[in-house]
């Protein structure tokens, strides 16, 4: 299980003998799935070279506030925006004083001022420096402003003293960081999502397809990443940008989608089938363009594999969420699909003329969903697809944890964050 999957940790290393421990910390953070960027103070560079941190983090190390090149590429504002959390480890007595005073004389202080993400601090200094009232006052001020202090631990110090001031262990730091992120999320899980339409070729220039824009599936991919999942998006032809931190695989036809899903499915924990997959394809796609000769032309179609039903039949353990696009009788059709495909949940939406008057659904930026599972249901009111996607992902996370705990028949929904 990777606890910090997709989380962006900005690690500030300051001038303390414990700076060497930051090297091990970077490695452990990456082991648990975090992306790490490092900012060093001048003091830190006296103990460990930035090159060490660059090699371990896999990214250039940020050193100077007034660096023309860095400001153009990733300056203090971009770094502040990039991070999900700022971790200062080790934090020296001097760095605590600078933070408490709100100074912006070094890159690390400036990034902290410019950022509104959680700040975690792992102090490391001599026991007398830690116990000094000035340091303690700085710690109190920073904690009051919301900083999370991790450690320091007690023990033998580099200077020979024994007492409080050693930097906390990497494992302790990581477990406290993990607590900062929502419990009940999809952290460490792999979510496979299909989105968009498929195209079933008639000849080299024509195809059968539908109005799906991919917006609902892409919003779900984004929301699943926010919830900490590793997300793979198998997409039919759409004109949308790939969401940040999502692996996208492009396909054309239902048969292509089937192959791509089979290739990804073994590593999947949760499968969400948002794609509007063509149920039928032409028996033969003509090699050459079909010529306009007859008054009537009959197309012979054959069934495509039902990808969602196939996944559940072949990989019973995967938590499967389907979608149902209906023009009428939403609940009865959706519940019938839930049963036929033997899946855990289905999100139903209206399409066609009725929907056009309200949510829109196909290609619209809004939608409304009725989610059904055995013994329960939840209506997600009309809203942007981004908002609905977050709500649906929160519901999936909740139902998945019951599923994993073998308590799936519990139909309770505790509460959904309404963001
Ligand atoms: O893309 P947008 O413009 O944002 O629109 C979103 C949407 C309307 C496409 C989406 O919300 C939606 O409802 N997607 C499913 C549409 C659909 O094809 O429903 P269905 O009732 O035909 O299929 C039921 C389920 O089986 C779906 O999860 C579908 O992905 C899956 N299926 C269907 C056929 C098939 N051969 N393989 C499948 O996996």
Quickly describe the structure:
The protein has 16 helices and 19 strands. The chain has helices spanning 21-31, 42-47, 50-57, 68-74, 76-82, 93-101, 107-114, 127-131, 133-144, 170-180, 215-226, 254-264, 307-314, 330-340, 353-357, 385-404, and strands at residues 8-13, 35-40, 85-91, 119-123, 148-149, 153-156, 162-166, 190-195, 200-201, 207-208, 230-235, 246-250, 270-273, 280-282, 301-303, 319-326, 345-350, 366-373, 376-384.
Keywords:
about 425 residues, alpha/beta, Rossmann fold, 2 domains, 8-stranded mixed β-sheet, 5-stranded parallel β-sheet, 16 helices, elongated, binds ligand PMT
Describe the protein's topology.
Blueprint: E1 8-13, H1 21-31, E2 35-40, H2 42-47, H3 50-57, H4 68-74, H5 76-82, E3 85-91, H6 93-101, H7 107-114, E4 119-123, H8 127-131, H9 133-144, E5 148-149, E6 153-156, E7 162-166, H10 170-180, E8 190-195, E9 200-201, E10 207-208, H11 215-226, E11 230-235, E12 246-250, H12 254-264, E13 270-273, E14 280-282, E15 301-303, H13 307-314, E16 319-326, H14 330-340, E17 345-350, H15 353-357, E18 366-373, E19 376-384, H16 385-404
Parallel strand pairs: 1-2, 1-3, 3-4, 4-5, 8-11, 8-13, 11-12, 13-16, 16-17
Antiparallel strand pairs: 6-7, 9-10, 14-15, 17-18, 18-19
The structure holds ligand PMT.
